Amino acid sequence: MWLANVVMVKKANEKWHICTDYTNLNKAYPKDLYLFPNIDRLVDRAFGFTLLSFMDVYSGYNQIKMDPQDEAKTAFITDSGTYCYKVIPFGLKNAGATYQCLMDKIFKEIIGIDVEVYVDNMVVKCTAAADRCRALERLFQVLRKHRLKLNPEKCSFGVQARKFLGFMLTEKGIEANLEKCQAVINMRSPQTVKEVQQLARRITALSRFLSRSAETIIPIFNTLKKGDIFA
After folding, report:
1. What dihedral do alpha carbons 181, 186, 191, 194 form, nearest 10°?
2. Burial of 74 per CB tally in 10 Å (0-12, 13-18, 19+)
3. What digits encode the pLDDT tens for the residues 9-49?
4. Which of 54, 59, 66, 75 could form a disulfide linkage to 84, CB 3.0–4.6 angstroms apart?
5. How many angstroms separate the CA atoms of 208 and 214, rounded?
6. Bridge partners (DSSP) listed for residue 170
7. Which domains does the chain have, with CATH numbers?
């Protein structure tokens, strides 16, 4: 029998989120190799539109039911007893792949036309107000059919620009996320391998906005080959 512990994680909005530590269960299960959409191509298809509507599914994983025979594997222990999930919990290794597969199936008729979807993030794109209403109607029909609920706090309708998957989408093009730029500027000179890796990830995320970015990041990667440089 699998049994996991519960941990509390503080979110960016300062609220606490209950998570279950499925480390052991995740080690035992093979990784789902379902292919996620390429973020760069997805973002390229979403800019240049007059009106954009951004939506986020409310606790998306929790809106998908577990297979009854697998519910016991999600068991977790608390002071008041042992429980298991009837919906997909956060923390399972293959939850993201399962969710993306579902989104690709239910939105297959409108993905790439009216909407772009990456896990629980969606953007509806159009060039006129009338088109926006029709596109949103098609999207909402799918949501209603499959009983998926949106998070109103993370939805914006009919806007001209907003962050999406770490990029700023506008009618004119794709702009760098200023928060990501500032994060690089505010970093101290790396003192450990972990800090070098963190810097490399942040620069890679901005690579499409950097001239000759591959050459820029090579010296950073080279420091990782020198095993004792931070000793």
Report:
1. -50
2. buried
3. 877 777 887 889 999 999 998 999 999 999 888 888 888 88
4. 75
5. 10
6. 161
7. 4-175 (3.30.70.270), 178-223 (no CATH)
Q: Facing residues of 87 across strands? A: 65
By C-alpha distance, which of 55, 56, 51 is closest to 133? 51
In one-letter notation, the amino acid at residue 219 is P
pLDDT digits (tens, 9 = 90+) for 187-229: 888 888 888 888 887 877 777 777 776 777 777 777 777 555 5
**Phi-psi bin for 48: left (phi > 0), alpha (psi -120 to 50), beta?**
left
Q: Which of 100, 91, 64 is nearest to 5 (CA)?
A: 91
Local structure of residue 57 (DSSP, 8 states): B
